[in-house]
Amino acid sequence: AQSVTQLGSHVSVSEGALVLLRCNYSSSVPPYLFWYVQYPNQGLQLLLKYTTGATLVKGINGFEAEFKKSETSFHLTKPSAHMSDAAEYFCAVSDQGGSEKLVFGKGTKLTVNP
Amino acid sequence: DTAVSQTPKYLVTQMGNDKSIKCEQNLGHDTMYWYKQDSKKFLKIMFSYNNKELIINETVPNRFSPKSPDKAHLNLHINSLELGDSAVYFCASSPWRGNEQFFGPGTRLTVL
Fold first, then answer.
1. How far apart (Å, rounded) are the C-alpha atoms in residues A47 and A39?
2. Out of A44, A97, A100, whose CB is closest to B48?
3. Which of A16, A55, A100, B57 could connect to A67 by a Cys-Cys bridge, CB 3.0–4.6 Å?
4. pLDDT > 90? residue A78
5. For B90, which of A44, A94, A103 is closest by C-beta distance?
6. CB neighbour list of residue A94: distance below 8 Å, 6 or more residues apart
7. pLDDT value of position A5
8. How would residue A51 be classed by pLDDT, with cut points 50, 70 and 90?
9. From the CA of B48, how many Å to the nearest CA of chain A?
């Protein structure tokens, strides 16, 4: 069974500082990996995804993530935080061409301080 | 145009009532999903349909019944609502065996 662990339910950074949100996954088959963002009272928006190929993936709003198979990790980073980045971030995993369901981590709430 | 839409956005009802949430997507996708987000923000798959056929049915009480009249619509009917059903319900869609799901804005259900 697949699972996702997001380390840190709350992360707080200063505006302009590096954002690092951690995600580790467990999967018996090659995974697809995703980061979604949820702003207050809104749905989920895809930030970026890893399917195959290049392990460093770039997404919207300046975010990127690196797939590290040996570490079973898919951490999300952004060099410089903006106030508008404050939101809940979810890491998710699915089978490649499998059941298609997304298995989500418990989320990390990012706070950006002025 | 909204890609994945849900109605209603808010739903407040009494225990024991029956209610429905509707979902429509205009993306031409074959696969649609229902997810539940609890009060701690945890998201979990409930159901998935591909071209009107049920393909995922997680451990969900029988009081929840999805219905897909066509591949652009997936509705969720809930019988005998309980306090624990209070949550945000998200609809999503994707191409069949695609690798990205598009989410609707959610329906916040409150059972009193």
1. 12
2. A100
3. A55
4. yes
5. A44
6. A2, A31, A32, A34, A100, A101, A102, A103, B99
7. 96
8. confident
9. 8
E strands present in B1-112: 4-7, 10-13, 19-25, 31-37, 43-50, 53-57, 64-70, 73-78, 87-94, 102-103, 107-111
For residue A91, the number of C-alpha atoms closer than 13 Å in the C-beta half-sphere is 30
In a mutational test of the B interface, the residue from A34, A44, A47, A108 whose CB has the highest number of chain B CBs within 10 Å is: A44
Binary contact (A104, B42; C-beta < 8 A): yes
Q: Both tokens of residue A49?
A: 């995804």
Structure tokens that stand for B105 in this block:
């804005």
Mutate to test the interface with B, among A100, A103, A108, A109 (most CBs of B within 10 A): A100
Tell me the pLDDT tens digit for each residue of B61-107. Answer: 999 999 999 989 999 999 999 999 999 999 999 887 667 889 999 99
